[in-house]
Task: inverse folding
């Protein structure tokens, strides 16, 4: 549906310049915008794109001369990326899941479905499951026994919710995510080679062959309100107590949260982050793509870890870290600079060795 410039500006809490009654049907990059598009020209570098396109309205940077840019209307925002959040929320219609219970869904008689919920085709809902009001469950989702889904939740196609999983209100679970799989927990009758390697740092002797015995996962997974779980991510059930992910935390695609892990509130875990069993991640921590956290390690609140950082020991609150093993970000950058200089230093040192006479030459 079309939106007026005034409607969009009101949704963003932004200022309108020019004709607020002008209607647009979709946002667009400036150079490819048509006359019924809203061009996203939030930086002066997009001025040339506006000239190449045909947009009559745009979101522009603070201080832009919108009339000189050939626009009939403009919206001025102080923080463009934040404005983009509000714009996409306004325009996105969301997934199409028909209200009510699809005829092909299989629902256990003991399950409770809240008012206004939408259950899509081929969904399987197990014993004792409780689904909150206005929750939406996409096609081919399975929800195992005794799990609880909060109000206004959105569980998208193909997600798998295991037994004893509690999901908060307004949670979003992207396609293919698995929440509540068994934890990866195995043990040997005597100390395993992995345990011995950790104790001896590789100096121990080899040992007799051993086989692994499974430790079953009796706990569940508890996830707070307003959390988002990325596509094909996995969060394992705890061994005894639940694995926990706090309110407002966001998990990207392919993130793995191991058994007994505790993640705080408003944390951000980017793609391919892996958190091993019983690790703890503090509030508002940001872990870049492919970060790894070893088992039983604590990462404090407000930590920022750059991409591919590997945390083998505790990281104190508020620290910015990078590298493998993790070190302070500025120290890691200096170390990498020194490492790049190392071949030249070795060549210079070798040349000096050849230039300085040996002691035997002075006898």
Result:
């Amino acid at each position: 549906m079309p939106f007026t410039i005034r409607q969009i500006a009101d949704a963003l809490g932004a200022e309108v310049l020019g004709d607020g009654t002008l209607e647009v049907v979709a946002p667009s990059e400036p150079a490819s915008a048509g006359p019924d598009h809203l061009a996203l020209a939030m930086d002066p570098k997009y001025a040339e794109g506006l000239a190449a396109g045909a947009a009559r309205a745009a979101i522009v940077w603070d201080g832009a001369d919108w009339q000189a840019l050939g626009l009939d209307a403009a919206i001025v925002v102080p923080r463009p990326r934040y404005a983009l959040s509000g714009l996409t929320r306004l325009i996105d219609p969301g997934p199409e899941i028909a209200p009510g219970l699809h005829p092909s869904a299989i629902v256990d008689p003991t399950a409770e479905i809240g008012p206004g919920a939408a259950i899509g085709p081929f969904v399987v809902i197990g014993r004792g499951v409780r689904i909150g009001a206005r929750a939406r469950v996409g096609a081919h989702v399975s929800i195992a026994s005794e799990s609880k889904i909060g109000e206004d939740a959105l569980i998208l196609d193909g997600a798998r919710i295991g037994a004893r999983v509690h999901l908060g209100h307004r949670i979003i679970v992207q396609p293919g995510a698995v929440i509540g799989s068994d934890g990866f927990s195995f043990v040997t009758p005597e100390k395993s080679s992995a345990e011995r390697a950790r104790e001896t740092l590789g100096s121990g002797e080899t040992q007799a062959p051993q086989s692994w015995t499974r430790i079953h996962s009796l706990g569940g997974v508890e996830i707070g309100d307003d959390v988002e779980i990325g596509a094909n991510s996995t969060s394992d059930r705890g061994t005894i107590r639940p694995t926990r992910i706090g309110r407002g935390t966001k998990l990207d695609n392919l993130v793995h949260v191991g058994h007994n892990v505790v993640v705080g509130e408003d944390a951000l875990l980017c793609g391919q982050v892996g958190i091993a069993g019983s690790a703890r991640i503090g509030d508002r921590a940001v872990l870049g793509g492919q970060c790894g956290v070893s088992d039983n390690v604590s990462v404090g609140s407000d930590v920022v870890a750059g991409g591919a950082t590997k945390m083998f020991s505790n990281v104190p609150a508020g620290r910015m870290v990078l590298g493998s093993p993790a070190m302070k970000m500025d120290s890691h950058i200096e170390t990498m600079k020194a490492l790049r200089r190392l071949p030249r230093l070795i060549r210079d040192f070798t040349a000096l060795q050849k230039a300085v006479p040996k002691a035997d030459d002075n006898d």
In short: The chain has a mean pLDDT of 95. The chain has three domains: 3-91, 117-322, 328-362. The first helix runs from residue 5 to 12.
